[in-house]
Predict the 3D structure of the following.
Amino acid sequence: MTDNNVVYVGSKPVMNYVLAVVKEFNNGASEVILKARGKAISRAVDAAEVSRNRFLTETKINGITIGTEKMQSENGPSNVSIIEIVIGK
């Protein structure tokens, strides 16, 4: 799998990420991975559900991976939750 099939979820509106997922499938991808961390996790879940239920009804969730990353900030190291949602045909 190439890095092209990965959609990084941040602070933009959910529909931006839904369109990115739909575009990847229209470009021939068999799987798309939504990656998010911290407060963007709920946005990633929303994007996956809207993509699957409204636009790409033939797709399914192939896997969900959760974890923790250590991040350096001005206050020292902190733990940030991460999620990867794999959507496939």
